Each structure stands twice: as structure tokens, then as C-alpha cells.
Amino acid sequence: TLHASADSGDKKKVVVLGGDGFCGWPTSLHLSDQGHEVIIVDNLSRRNIDNELGCDSLTPIQSPEVRVQAWKEVSGKDIKFVNLDVAKDYDLLVQLLKEEKPDSVVHFAEQRAAPYSMKTSKAKRYTVDNNVGGANNLCCAVIDSELDIHIVHLGTMGVYGYGTSGGEIPEGYIDVILPGGRESTILHPAYPGSVYHATKCLDALLWQFYQKNDQLRITDLHQGIVWGTNTPQTAKDERLVNRFDYDGDYGTVLNRFLMQGAMGVPLTVYGTGGQTRAFIHITDTARCIEIAVNNPPAKGDRVEIFNQIAETRRVRDVAKMVAEMTGVEANFIPNPRQEAAENELDVSNKKFCNLGLDPISLDTGLFDEVTEVVKKYKSRCNPRKILPASFWNKKRAEECASID
Ligand code: NAD
What ipTM was predicted for this assembly? Predict the structure, then answer.
């Protein structure tokens, strides 16, 4: 049951877990800009992983303290920043919820790179502990707070398993006839393609369980690949600039191509580029989150699931668009991932559209924004970091050994 329109007019208090990240920061600013009260929680693990990998955001992101101070100067609005680990600092999390009494918690605070999650056993174990532990902690903390807090979680299109259903992927649930003839509505089968995607499938089961057992109000957003850099809010001051990942582990496909195009280095297309993926612009990520925050499910309703995507495209077609725009060629390299070479992907996104989202599609006009950002900060780029640095298994690693 959906209760309100895109802007219901009532302003919320929102805790944004992972609010220092690529999606979390612009979303925090958008919510603040719209008049909601925002508290960012982040343990800065993403910045630490950059140190571990010897990479850095292409854009010179400022510390959380400088960021919120700059936002105060630009907008007159306060955003609080709290450094805590959602997966480890349980008591502090409960205390924060009890003190702040938020209407909603938006949960971005997970290790989000599929390649990084496949890098080593250490990275696999960290990704599972951090993501699944964090999701479970959040549910327990909401129960312990004794407050009726709406959880909005960022899931991924990858929970569905690309192209396995052979038709339009619905929003979260499918109607089935179980053995014995009983009709039922169940979660779409989970078919993850990496340890990272597996954590999102496990999260989805936790949401389902805690909704059923404790009547938690939960929205799970299965998001596509996010592209773009800045939003109207982050563009207001250089100190507010969003992070831009371009390395082989964290750089997502379209941003990586745009970056390679702007730098004049060949676009690295994995395999045949026949993988179809779902895309969404960063400005729409922030808008979708606000719509979700404004439209909580009622107590007792099943977990609300939205597909948070604008459109689907084949990777080689995306590469072609960027190649035509920049004159830089595509270079087809062995695929570091264990996946089907070609797949179809047809996804429903009706729910967000019905709530007023008019999604930004892949259009070369908006590619310019990313290209300009890349050109501006080009000297910060280490081109050696662009190639794949994580491989799904031994066979993939061997096949990729020739890439240079
Ligand atoms: P990100 O790594 O830039 O941001 C995640 C933030 O969470 C980081 O700032 C990190 O420091 C923080 N964090 C991680 N673990 C934490 C913990 N235990 N305690 C406190 N803070 C913690 O990632 P992103 O691209 O902004 O993604 C945000 C969410 O959106 C993720 O859950 C991701 O799975 C989902 N998502 C992202 C994309 C994409 O293309 N970027 C696509 C689909 C879904």
C-alpha cells in the first residue's frame, strides 16, 4: 500500500547510513535541500579501502566535517555527521536511534563493489560480515529502539540474476503455484553473481523475516548501475563535490567508459560486451530515495520493493555511444567475471514512475557533465588503476593474465 505522492509535504527526520559515499552524499544533500532533517552516519571504510588499494576518488572529496560545514554555508542547513560502524558499534547505533528518533533510516552502508568482494578470501569475508551483519544490526536496533522507524535499504538489480527469468523482471515478488497446487506470492528467486550480490540476497531474507516477525516497515530498492557525478546540490560548491570512482574494482561501467573517453584511452569492454545492465543517473538515485522515504509501507505490510532503474542497455551499445561521442575506440578484453557472455534484461520500474519519477535516460548531453569533471581532475588519475584487478575464479584470472 502506498500512502502519499512524491512530495507529501511532511518533512522527515532521516538517518543516512553510508552518507559519505557516492550515492549517500548526494542523497543526503537532496533530502536536506527538500527540507528533511538529515543525520549522516559513516565509518569512512570506503575511504580506507581506497588507501588499501592505492586509489583515490578522481574528484578531490573533502572530509565529512568540511563537507557539512560547506553545506551549512551554501544552504543555511545543518547536517550532523556521526562516525560509527553499523556492523560493529551496535550499542552506539541503538543509542543514536533512541536519541534522534528518526522517521526513517536510509541504509547505504555496505561494501558495494562486486569485484572487490571477489578479490581475496579476506575481502569476501569482510563483505559478508559487514553487509549482512550491518543489515541484521539495523533491524535489531530498530526493534530495541521501540520506535516505528521506516528502513529504506539499497539493494541491487543483481539479486535477480541477470536474464534468468526470461521476461520482464517484476518488482520483487512473483506469483507461483507451489508443489501441491497452493497459490502463493514469493520473493523473486535470488541468483547472485558475486559475493557482494549474495549479501544483498541475504539482506532481502532478513528484511522479509523481520517484517513478518516484528512488523518492521521496510522498503528495499533494487537499484541499477549508477552513473554521473554531481547533482544540483553537490555542484553548488567545489567542497561538496561527489566522489568519482574509476578504478577496476569500484569504477562502475558507464562512468569508467566516460572517464576513458575523456582521457583518450581505449574503453575496456569485458568479453563481448553482450551483458545487458540496468542504469540510473545519480540525480535520480537521490530523487527515488526521497520518494521512498515519503511513501513508507503501513505497519504489517510486506517489504515494499521497487526496481530503481531508468533503463537497460547492452554494455557494448553503451561503449559505442561513448566511442562515437569521444572518438576513442572500444577494446574488448577477457571478462574477469564468471557470467553469461550475452543476456537480455527487461525490468519493470512502474512503481517509481507511478509515484512521479520521470527518469533521466542515457543521453549524451549528460555525458558532458561527467566528461567535464574528468577533464578538470585528469591530473589526479592513475591510468594503471583502470584495468580489472579482481577475478571471479582461477580460470578467469588465467584468461585475464594477458591484459595489459
Ligand atoms: P560507497 O562505497 O560509495 O558508499 C557506501 C558508504 O557506506 C561508504 O561511505 C562507506 O564508508 C560506508 N560504510 C560501509 N560499511 C559501513 C559500516 N559498516 N558502517 C558505517 N558506514 C559504512 O557505495 P555507493 O556506490 O554509494 O553505494 C551505496 C549503496 O547503494 C550500497 O549499498 C550499494 O550496494 C548500493 N548500490 C550502488 C550502486 C552503484 O552503482 N554505485 C548500484 C546499485 C546499488
Answer: 0.99
